[in-house]
Amino acid sequence: MYKQDNRLAVRGTYIHAPKLGEIEVVESALIVVGAAGAVEQILLPDDPSFEANCRAAKDAGHYVQLRENQYLLPGLVDLHVHAPQWPQAGRALRVPLEQWLQQYTFPLEARYSDIEFAQCVYQSLVNTLLANGTTTALYFASIHLESSLLLAQICLESGQRALVGKVSMDNPEQCPDYYREQSTSAGLATTEAFICGVKSLPNNQLSMVRPVVTPRFIPSCTDEMLLGLGQIANQHDCHVQTHCSESEWEHQYVLDRFGKSDTECLADMGLANGKSVFAHANFVSDEDMTIIHEAAVGIAHCPMSNIYFANSVFPTRKALNTGINVGLGTDIAGGPSPSLLFNCQMATSMSRILESGVDPTLRDSVRGVADSRLTFQEAFWMATAGGGAALGENIGVFKPGYCFDAIVVDFNVEHSNIANWPELENADEQLEKIIYNANRQNIVRVWVNGQTVVDRASSR
């Protein structure tokens, strides 16, 4: 959905998190968006040029004024989505990760050699994520070149900012015969072909969709594959994504195979740098966190799937205190919900569980991990600015020079779960209500790079 001119002016109250733990609420602002889709200026009513800019935008036909009880939020950034797994979201979460992969996930992902099947699933997923306010997504596709390129094309045509990776997996000891690369060399060659294919997609002049080097995780890859992917990522200056110390099984497998942690191995293979995002990282050590921080690697915190497949809670507070850029991931389909707002809830809830502990037979002084709690403000930062920082993208904040990716949350939609009592609440509390009670129907408008991609407001 590439356009030459994405000029826009939006007037209303916006809420964002420019710093970790800090919420800024600006009432009756005018956000002026330039032709390339980035914020040019933010004006308040007392600015001498405020009314003139409003009139100019109205005359040009690109003026939007929010209604009462509507709030403008930055677009949400999902750092971990398995696109092929969308049909199984909410299924088979009762079994361990290794069983889930072999019995359910790999057979499903193998179906993406069927381009018609891929078209149907991927379009459904992208539409669903956009409707839930996800303006940027970091996707795992499958091992198939053609359907992985199709996912990138669908994201582009739908207007979603996306980073897409063709999955690499060639280890015959961990990958079934029916679902793995034909050979290591063939897998590396198709990864390079995928990178070139995404970069040359028609109408991708703004690089709204970018390729990502994607070893599934260490168990699924041979040493040769991991080293080769590290070299490709460096040669093409690509983002990298993979799983890191996700479950006890996976973490122990790597220790047994290499005698060192996932983090150490990924760094040794050239896969840990400022464009890397490691998903989960539940079992990382303090030494691993130091490596991650020093390499400027981002972490995709997936609070729901961690409970199902790691049986643990990621120490988010410790990672943030270390200075690591932590964002949120739905981890579809290990996480069953496509809503990042719901994952904000889960991030705060799981952090409190980690801090307080769950065994009532133990005294509270020894039951949990002290100082682990997250605030809703911090979870919101991770879903917006933190995700942008992990990707190295100028997104997630309303600021001149940043891309205008935004959502409108409407408290007054029919059948809303938000009880609206503005006279009893400050703006911070209204954001808290959004995080805990807003759902898809409350998100009535979505922009990506200044371009409208969802508009339910105009039909009301």
Summarize the structure.
Helices cover 38% and strands 22% of the residues. It has 460 residues and is of the alpha/beta class. The mean pLDDT is 95.
Task: Please tell me the overall pLDDT.
Answer: 95
Strand content: 15-25%
Percent of residues in helices: 25-40%
User: Biggest sheet: strands, sense, closure?
Assistant: 9 strands, parallel
Count of DSSP strands: 17
What ranges have pLDDT less than 50 throughout 5 or more consecutive residues? Answer: none
CATH topology of the largest domain: TIM Barrel
CATH architecture term of the largest domain: Alpha-Beta Barrel
Question: In CATH, what is the class of the largest domain?
Answer: Alpha Beta
Distance between the termini: 25 Å
Q: Over the alpha carbons, how many angstroms does the gyration radius reach?
A: 22 Å
Number of DSSP helical runs: 15
Number of domains: 2
- Secondary structure class reads alpha/beta
Name of the CATH superfamily of the largest domain: Metal-dependent hydrolases
What general form does the structure show? globular
